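# step 3/5: fold
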Amino acid sequence: MKCGDSLVGLTLAQIRRFHWEPTASGQMLIGQEELYRRVKEAEKHRTVILETGDYTPHLLKEQQHKLADESLNLVRFAANLAVAAFFAGENDKKREAKRSDLLNALSAYLQKPIPQLRPNKEEGTLREGPHPILPFHWEIEFPEVFGRKEAGFDVIVGNPPFLGGKRISTNYGDSYRDWLVSVHQQANSNADLVAHFFRRAFELVRPGGTFGLIATNTIAQGDTRSSGLRWICTHGGTILAARRRYRWPGQAAVVVSVVHISKGPIFNSSELDGNPVERITAYLFHAGGHDDPAILRSNAGRSFIGCDIKGQGFLFDDNDEGATPLSVMKEMTAKKPEISNVILPYIGGEEINTSPTHSHHRFVIHFREMSLEEAKSFPDLLTIVESKVKPQRQKQSDELARWPWWQFWRVRSELYSSIQGLDRVLACSQTSKYLSFAQVPSQLVFSHKTVVFPLGTHSSFCVMQSRAHLEWSDFLGSSMKDDPVYTPSDCFETFPFPEGFESNPALEAAGKAYYEFRADLMVRNNEGLTKTYNRFHDPNESSADVLKLRELHDLMDRAVLDAYGGDLAKLTVPPCEFLLDYEDDDEGDEETGKRQRKKPWRYRWPDAFRDEVLALLLELNKQRAEQEQLTAPAEKPKRASGRRRTTPLKQTPDLPLEQDREGDDTA
């Protein structure tokens, strides 16, 4: 029996280079010949154990095992010392400096092996502190396995631990998180711990070998998929069998996935949930690719994040301490009506979701891209901004502090150019319990908590609110706490819309019927989108209005699938079910037994059908991207670089969502 941290260890090649990076070309360890000799010596002793058979006395085998172990002690020490260098530093620069020091110390000891020169203290630091580590160097511990021609294990079977990526550093420290990302190329620090066990198992099996692991059911999603299955499938691995959802036996309400992978191609069909399929992708689908879906040119310039004002002092609002009361605004506009040109209605995701009519209740001072001299034409408003916004900006980052304090941080000129001439646009809250789209007037200032689409038809709403798009967005988007976050680059720009969807009469009719019924229902009940969809997704809700809304949603879904044609149109849609979005461990109050919050029920397609639709949409995305490359090979859709000038431009650049998280973002 052997024990240790199977994710923290080095290969023989890394030990010789005295470096943890998989492809590092660092200075070779002086005296490595002695380490190599000892590994071969251990391999010889362990081979004797394997070849002697069952009738050899146990004591003789034990003697050979001890000799092998003694031969490897110095090699383990050298490997541990290199690992200690990594965990001794908090960044790459400090780790490299420590590695250089320990490299010299170890080389000196290997050339002159006297006890005083052996850096025992440094190696011992691994087992100290709040997060002690016992490295496990697979190639050292099993020299006969990795010393053969086709190095590696034939088979690995395991049930590794699951741990969300953001909890890895909490449980094991920041250095442990950094280690995983360093040794597994293209891995993301947000990936679940289990993805790293998949990577390690893939490294350890021989060419043609296989491994099967139990995994969290998020193994095929997001950063966990990208760091684990995606990398494996694009580096020679083949998923030969998978069971996507398996309820763990016993009292624990845990759903897992079981995945079997071959290191190399297979020569018969794969098996997905017990059914033969030609292939299994990193998404654990039978169609599509392994990589993230491509951004499609046809979707460019059709989705925008709203303005990021970076300063509540721009606002007139009775419910925000940082804003100015609405009564002050009314007095000012009564005295000087001309200032209404720079006081505009302002709407955020909260109003879209809570108001039955998606009405705004706030106003904002908007100097657009005026110079300070131009803004002085509105002295009363400029005084408000100077007293409320400027001091707050000075406390923020240097870049924000240098930005003109009378202007929004993100003006979003491209957004307003795209919706110019439209009476209404489609919009949604960036983060919400339920992704819901609404038609709102275009003459508003939209906050950065909204996503806006220059799509004003019911047919556009029909596709966006359909389960095809909702499931796509939920699958590819991010999340905040338990709520989905709609990121246009991931959810919209990649989505393969039905061809000609904006002028499709069937989509227009289905979308109009659903939208108008929902709008009337919200007004009659005086409930916004969130409360309406709370009822929509409640398995105990059976009112006639909610049943009608569910029926209209089903009809809208059918119209969207039909609009695609091909395999999507041929699908027979099963009845929706009330399913949990995730396992909720809220056991309720100890005294009353009542739950603190409602279970996360969702009225949606069954998992198998949802996965079928997603697989076909991923394949369609791949086909569309290939077609766009053929028609315009010199043009590639690019995400914004995220760089920002420190002086205002005539047209403020539109940056991706992930660049909009600096300073005050409560608007």
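# step 4/5: annotate
DSSP finds 26 helices and 18 strands in the chain.
# step 5/5: archive (pending)
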